[in-house]
Amino acid sequence: MTEATPAPIAAPTASSTRDRLLDAAADLFYREGMHIGVEALCRAAGVSKRSMYQLFDSKDEVIAASLDRTAAAYRAALFPAADDAGSPRERILHVFRRLEALSVDADFHGCPFVAAAVELKVPEHPGSLAARRHKNALIAYFRHEAEAGGAQDPAELSRHLTVVFDGANSWGVVQGSGTDGLAISMATTLLDAAGMKDTAG
Questions:
Q1: Could you tell me the residue range of the domain that residue 126 belongs to?
Q2: Does residue 198 lie in a domain region?
Q3: What are the φ and ψ backbone dihedral angles of 195, each rounded to 5 degrees?
Q4: Which residue ranges does the Swiss-Prot or TrEMBL entry mark as DNA-binding (predicted)?
Q5: Averaged pLDDT for residues 170-177
Q6: Is 8 inside a domain boundary?
Q7: Residue 5 included in any domain
Q8: pTM for this model (two decimals)
Q9: What SS3 state is found at 198?
């Protein structure tokens, strides 16, 4: 009985090349900064510069796309599941508890979107626009839960919570020892002041 001929290994597709490039970009930009050059990025991704420029017009576009790629995993790490039965108050505090847990990890370098915007400095840079879009998604999440929880001023509360979140990220990076529960306690104070009840939504 003859052995079946192994199926040929498929040649890399444009989508797999794009995935490898964006995965490498998200990792390198977060760990080392946006200054990473195209050659180093392509080497880490295992793709050629020619392939990169066939997919993206510039490194700026790669930065923006890598932040978009980071967003889904970042939200999954922070937000409760969509079918979570917790109260709106608990769904907000869940984000700060997750931040506390993440902030003690050796690979924690703060919020990737704030880090990108700070380093890029130009508000209209494609990466800055992507960072703002994803920070606004966090504000929208807080506002949605604040409205569901009967907060006195959901719009104001959502902005205050985001400021606490971003400040806690900075604290964790600068101090190098986590957020020490500060974000959780400050968020709790804001929720209490806004009149959000700890009941199931």
A1: 14-193
A2: no
A3: 80, 25
A4: 37-56
A5: 92
A6: no
A7: no
A8: 0.88
A9: coil
Domain tally, the chain: 1
Q: Flag whether 141 is in a domain.
A: yes
DSSP string covering 123-166: TTSHHHHHHHHHHHHHHHHHHHHHHHTT-S-HHHHHHHHHHHHH
8 A C-beta contact, residue 148 and residue 84: no
Of 25, 87, 96, 93, the closest CA to residue 56 belongs to 25
Q: How far is CA 43 from CA 28, 58, 128, 190, in A?
A: 11, 16, 25, 46
The phi and psi torsions of 12 (rounded to 5 degrees) equal -55, 135
Residue type, 91: R
Q: Where do we find the tokens 């130009």?
A: 122
Name the more confident of 54 and 82: 54
Q: How far apart are CA 119 and CA 83, in angstroms?
A: 36
- CATH number where 156 lies: 1.10.357.10
Of 171, 38, 42, 178, whose CA–CA distance to 107 is shortest? 178
- The pLDDT value given to residue 198: 77
Per the CB < 8 A criterion, the answer to whether 141 and 88 are in contact is: no
For 3, phi then psi, to 5°, come to -75, 145
**Contact indicator for 62, 175 with CB cutoff of 8 Å:** no
